[in-house]
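Honest question from a wet-lab person: if I give you the sequences of every part of a complex, can you actually get the arrangement of the whole thing, not just the pieces? Trying it with mine:
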Amino acid sequence: MTMAIKNWMAESKGYPLDVMISVVLVFLLSLGFIMVGSASTDISARIYGDPLYLFLRHSVYMVISFAAAGLVLSVPVDAWKKTDWLWLLVSFALLIAVLVPGIGRTVNGATRWISLGFMTLQGSEFVKLFAVVYISGHLVRRRADIDESISGFIRPLVLISVLVLLLLEQPDFGASVVILASVMGVIFLAGVPFRHFIPVISVFIVATLVIAQWQPYRLDRFASFTDPWTHQFNEGYQLTQALIAFGRGEWLGMGLGNSIQKLFYLPEAHTDFLFSILAEELGAIVAAAVIIAFAVLVLRGLVIGRRALDAGLEFHGYLAFGIALLLGIQSAINIGVNIGLLPTKGLTLPFVSYGGNSLIVSCIVVSILLRIEYEVRASNIEPTSRQKVDA
Amino acid sequence: MPVNWRVQFVGLIFILLATAMTARVVFLHIIDRDFLQGQGDARTNRIEKVHAHRGMMMDRKGRPLAISTPVVSIWVDPRQLDLQPATLAAIAGALGISAVDLNNKLEQSNSRKFISLLRRIPPAQAEPIMGLGIRGIYFEREYQRFYPAGEVAAHVVGFTDIKDKGQEGLELSFDQWLQGKPGEKKVVKNLYGEVVRDIKPIREAVAGKSLTLTIDLRLQYLAYRELKSAVNFYQAESGSVIILDVETGAILSLVNQPSYNPNNRKGLQLGHVRNRAITDVFEPGSTVKPFTVAVALESGDYQITSTIDTNPGFIRVGGKTIPDPRNLGVIDLGSVIAKSSQVGITKLALSLNEYDIWNMFSAVGYGQSLESGFPGESSGYLPNRRRWRDIERATFAYGYGLQVTPLQLAASYQVIASGGIKNDISMVRSEVGRGQRVISATTAANLKHMLVRVVTEGTGKRAAIDEYSVAGKTGTVRKVGKNGYEDTHHLAFFAGMAPAERPRLVGVVLINDPKGEQYGGGAIAAPLFSRIMSEALRLLSVPPRQYNEAA
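Yes, you can. This is the full assembly:
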């Protein structure tokens, strides 16, 4: 066993964790730490009377996240595989609990939070992970059913759809999109026959239209993002303020701490629109680097998933795909919203934005990915070392 | 088993997404930046006014009459103010009011965006509140006008309004000169309107120019004190005193009663603001008699020794009887002035060219604007008739049927004092102009001698000063009421000069409607003239008579 670790260390050039993911994480987490500090001071001073209030809270979340990440790193991936259905139950429990009057807390018209005293729990963040864990396990267990019949394919999707309906009840449209897209992506990457997708995609299109009809404020948001400047005093306000931040940034930014948009012009400057403030203060080059970092993270996740499948670790592979998709889709939507390519959604930028739930779940998720990579690497090495022992 | 192309396909989607986003980010940062920055600046950059220092007003010796001092105004935006009891208590403590009062004040007006907490307090007093650093409280640095001489110079100096614009007096007429040009600076504001940082000054504030008046504050205080005590003593309706410098025509002192405190104009009565010496007109009465005599002397038909028969003490003109107080008999021209004989002046007037008296009055400034620069200056009223009836000629010659301001009266006596030269009356030092001869030097000298006799032997004895010779003329005018001239309401005048040998100062004293037994110019205005002039001459170090005689 010690030999195994030594070889494995040698193969990974001395690093116990995947180098590429580690570098990206250090970059994004430290950038986020700095930018939350910069973007939150004025808001903290105004609302809480202490300019460091939100920054200190974020620091505590960082510590909690690292602890959670360390814990998750030490859990074998098989533990998730054995309990996938349990996490689905936890998801239902969380999403139903938040809708119970007296438990759920409503902020800005959305009931997403359960108070834990020192912080609030945002169930939807955890449900993202749990849904992906569940679908990966289900794909392994019922692969034959899924490939065989359309009903086998639909059955897990019904469960996921109920989750999504509960999310829409909050409402949390952003999380719904992320979960649905990630789950569908995992099923697609798992190689499920393409013909199964056609009815499902049709249902999605119809459902989207119905939702747009049912909750027309989404249409307003949609209209505002295509032409924010004609709606700049109502629906388009936030986006115009975000775009101005980019214009101010130029190549190298206005300098750390010098954002004007964070002076209450841009709402959610430290959370959903932190990327805009980052672009304003640090410029186009750093903003582009953040996009590239997320792209690297996603591609690396896909590669790890592919290797896992090659090594015969099915669950590992699907979960890696799911994690890559979760992080990729959420970051793409967040950045897309910030730069005016997508309508406004309440989604944070993983690792970067302020917010305890988002940060903790992002760190847990990426730890699982690191653990998968570690186990895949170990599985490739073990036979070789055994051969050496035999020899 | 998974298909490899599916992973590659998803990977490709993310690569394309990342590429598109990077392109978009660069587009926004670089290509679209002029538009976006313009939009941003339009929302965040504001132009702030920088208050300019208003010019100082000083008396002729540089003593301050109007000063702009830096002050701080405190505003509060109740929507932003966190109404915690502790915050309220801190603000109230710094303001020196009770927290309950402050809370009431804020609650009464919590729908408004801005409430003025304190206006224009000294910076030292504002500092404790500024130091609290409470959000929602704003400070504006501006200047406030302060008038050190208070009510004493109020009518001359005037005052400014809350926006630092001149409203009265020289503050109004020299507003352009005194006011600075406010500057502008570009600042960045946050969404709540708080200035985050200054970008650059667009225009520096230019301070206003200072203004030196001809007023001598010592004479101003002196005249004010004496006038106020006289008006109080006689329970008069109002009063004015003017002192002119003979040589330059400069106004050394100009005071009125009632006056007001320009530093605290609460409950201000409009009547008190009026600069009566310049805006109000009166029939000058006997005080114009010397100019009627001047016409006689200049006509060549009369000498200083010429006599007039005033028997039997009255004269009938056009069905009206014009009386003297008693029958003065045959008197010379000097006595006509000294005894203020109506009969003598009437006879004189009727013997002269009917237009010449009008011309003389006009030449010494009656009915003409003095161009003193005071707002609301009156030109008086000099009726210009094509045909003069005899009664009109007579009454006009002894000062009825025309209206002058006290300042015009002073200006006309300045002509006699300066030997016949009319100087422009000025209020501001740089404005001293050249004079213009309107009466011959001989006539002026003769008039002056006659005016000396008014004080030595005539109606103006109480104008005399021990150390200086005085020349002057009393005037007692019945006021015009609803039913014509009233018997019980009078104006008491004294217009004169000192020292008579070589006049330095011309003074006019007017007491409007004194109550009591005595009401005449000789009884009321003359002693006031004496008190003010004797003190004024001493203050100006004018050598007294004994010194002149010894030399």
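Two things worth pointing out. Chain B is about 35% helix and 20% strand. Chain B has a mean pLDDT of 87.
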